[in-house]
Amino acid sequence: MQALTDDILWDSFRQGNKEALAKLFERHYAGLYRYAHKLHPDREAINDLIQDLFIEIWQQREPKPVLSILGYLLQSLRYKLIRSRRKEVERRAIETQTEPFVLSPEDFRMRQETDAERNRRLVDAMDELSPRQREVIYLRFYLALPYREICAILSLDYQIARNHLHQGIKRLRSHLDWAKTLEHRP
Fold first, then answer.
1. What is the pLDDT of residue 1?
2. CA 186 to CA 165: how far, in whole Å?
3. How do the domains of the chain map onto residue ranges?
4. Chunked in runs of 10, what are the mean pLDDT values of the chain (186 residues)?
5. Which pLDDT score is estimated for 19?
6. Are the beta carbons of 4 and 23 closer than 8 angstroms?
7. How many CB atoms lie within 10 A of CB 160?
8. Res 22: pLDDT
9. Contacts 24+ apart (CB under 8 A), 176-181
10. What angle, rounded to 10 degrees, do the helices at 69-96 and 43-60 form?
11. CA dist 84 to 45, 112, 147, 170, Å?
């Protein structure tokens, strides 16, 4: 029996097969969730956005095939995350006009969890990167995507994606080396 590849499932879904879309959802949910969690901290919002994405895909059923199913899903989810974050920022801006800033206990606990020295250095180093560099590094090393898919997801030229990755790694090394030298000072 022939294995059901993403392309076969996608074509079947485009012809109206809900089960094919459900299999794509099951196959890619975990990867989509991990990617989104790197960009957005709210787990419930991520679950809702992924489900909304598949509902919209079902309702719109693109008439043409896509080059990479995973790339298409990641790019679509990224756009949904961006729109969601914009709405959240607007909502918070309105709220902060009337309420003072308060650090929640959950925020405080999250900070304490990163006290381990190695994690702190890495977090600090990642914070030094631009959002685009962080995203390219995540897609390349955590999801092991090829450059062509990264370029499609982020709407970048090949060389620009490579430059972001190279500069990001260079900045990480520089920051981590600098932190080590501070550690060894008397």
1. 44
2. 35
3. 1-102, 103-186
4. 79 88 93 88 89 89 76 90 81 64 62 59 81 88 85 91 91 76 54
5. 93
6. yes
7. 14
8. 93
9. 176/121, 176/122, 176/125, 179/121, 179/124, 179/125
10. 130
11. 9, 28, 26, 31
Asked if residues 170 and 115 have their Cβ atoms less than 8 Å apart, the reply is no
Let me know: does 12 contact 20? Beta carbons within 8 Å: yes
115: its two tokens: 């006290």
Write the DSSP symbol of residue 140: I
Which letter does DSSP use for residue 15 in this model?
T
pLDDT confidence of residue 51: 92
pLDDT, residue 53, reads 92
CATH for 103-186 (1.10.10.10, 3.50.50.60, 2.40.30.20, 1.20.950.20): 1.10.10.10
Question: Quick one: pLDDT at residue 62?
Answer: 65
CA-derived radius of gyration, the chain: 20
Domains 1-102 and 103-186 share a fold: no
